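Submission sheet (multi-component)
Chains listed below:
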Amino acid sequence: MPAETAIAWEGVTKRYRDTAAVDDVSVAVAAGSFVALVGGSGAGKSTLLQCVNRLVEPTAGRVLVHGQDVRDPPAPTLRRGIGYVFQSIGLFPHMTVGENIAIGLTIAGQAARGRIDEMLDLVDLPRDMAARMPDALSGGQRQRVAIARALAPAPSILLLDEAFGALDPVTRDTLGQAVRALHDRLALTTILVTHDMAEALLLADRVLVMARGRLVADERPRALLDGAGGAAAQALVAVPRDQAARMGRLA
Amino acid sequence: MSSFVDALSRVPPLLAAHVQLAAAAMLLALVIGLPLGLWSARRPGVARVVLGFASLVQTIPGLALLALFYPLLLSLSTLVGGGIPALGFLPALLALTLYALLPILRNLVEGLRGIDDGVLRAADAVGMTRTQKLRLVEAPLAAPVAVAGLRTAAVWTIGAATLSTTVGCPSLGDMIFAGLQTQSWSLVLAGCVAAAGLALVVDAAIGAIQTGLTTRRRWLWRGATALLAIGVATSTLPLWASRGGPVVVVGAKNFSEQYILARLIGDRLTRAGYTVEYRDGLGSAVAFQAVAGGQVDVYVEYAGTIWNGAMARRDVVPRPAMIAAIRDWARAKHGVGLLGGLGFENAYAFATRRRDLATIADLARVAPGLRLGSDLEFLERPEWAAVRDRYGLRFAGTTPYSPTFMYRALASGRADVITAFSSDGRIAADRLTVLTDPAGAIPGYDAILLASPARADDARFRAALRPLIGHIPVAAMREANYRVDRDTDKETPEAAAHWLARRVGLEEQLP
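Outcome: structure written.
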């Protein structure tokens, strides 16, 4: 039985003046899959991702979420069903950790009682952290809070927009694995935008490679490692592979 | 010291008016500034225009801004067929509101623009509506900076509100201007202390709100806001208190004689059961407009001022004929009632310490070697042009002074001749020679009582003031003026008014 399509981009183009950040991209993502969107800076991957929760409005084409055009519901309604975590984190500095986590429920007029503790448990943070202010937290802790905030309203889709980009390598690795575990446990559809091919290969079920606004490869991680996907994709795969080889020679 | 305590007793009603004016201006500035600031923060083009305009307004001196609103409102009122008061609360409110706008706008825009982009993106991404984003994220994060602007605006507004006296809106400036004119420094000091104290208290209260918002201590900013609101309510209490009887406004221009006569008139009206308010320090030109427009119910004018000014007459006619002509003109053109002359004249008179001169004709012969000290407006007035042309007066130099300093200039020899006022007590006290006007170039300056259209036919009102008509001889007026103007043992205009009332037999000598 083929899995239901959670997200579909249909001929999506986004132009800024003369340059096309995203150039006629069509691709569908099955529900429950963990897809990595990889590319160098300026490849258009964040723009493509943000068309899903309408932080970016496409110039042409359309995006479907669970078969519905994202322009049909009002933007706030759409966004409340999609978790979004991004590099600059954006915790509300004037709210406690607990208030930050509960915000999605608060603005929708839902009770947040119990949910804060549950979410803190989920992202492996102590419950007493709920009363702290964001500026008292480390970078990794803040990003965990941001993930908890994104997941608190129980969305079916999680968008990770360079979410681990600003973290140190150790935190980054730990958090990546934690997110993958959450993805499996909550049966999410997750899209991870990253410029780090190693991260993509290790976490995702499927890797989409973008270059200059176009989709240039769509492969399983295993296939990429076996040399599929073309020159642009292989150039990205070569980086972690060479690094591993060089480290192997050092050992 | 006791005069300072006396002066302090005048503070409460003026403080009430001051707080009311400043608070209203701040509120209006907020109502205008908040949406304008929000709009500006989202549109850089709008911000350039709005902040540019607000900065431009800020470069206009406060006094000039207030003064500009008078002709502006006057012509606006004419345009819409009347009904817009050009004097009093409205022009003061508008000028102060404009003044308060810049710091409010600038800080609001700065506060909103200073919010981290990531935080704003997060607000969108979690699914906030525009209103939720404004209420839950933008407002609380911009508040500390925005409130700092509010604080600056409040201190400016309270300071600038003292200038509203000049457009006939009562404020603590009444004490400062009156004190400056009568050289009653305790009055000036009391006015300044009250205004500065008010500014400090408000600054501290808004400062506490700001600290509360910055450090996220809800009780602090809420408490300080509540205290501020209670403070405004309590200090304006004298304005809400029920008044006995109808309210009349007695106007006064900005010199001692006017202050004294206003109190004399006010005392008569109080006895007749009216509640009296004073508008002190009105500019000479605005006083007549104020009585015609009903912002002032009664004041003392001088025949020649109307004759040469509003009526633009250049001929000189006998004084009784002149008063009759003014009576007819004021009634027909403006509905203003001339209740009668007070019985003395306060004419422009050339006064000197020299004993060898008796007439202006004598003066004309030696004038090229002499310096003339005038009051602030005389050299611009038609009387000066008339007398200059009639006698061929040419002085070595002319310098305008405020009245008090004009007498000082004569005493110190910096001026040889001054344009004194014939009812001024200092003429006798300084033993000055007043030069006669054989050619009749200067019109009569009989003191006349003018009443607003609403009061002109009010029998009770006229009856209350009738005892003043023709009852104040110039000698009595001079002495009353001197009691206020002299350098030592100065009396307040109120005390001099009481003295004058007894002197002319309006009041029984109290045991």
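Remark: The mean pLDDT of chain B is 88.
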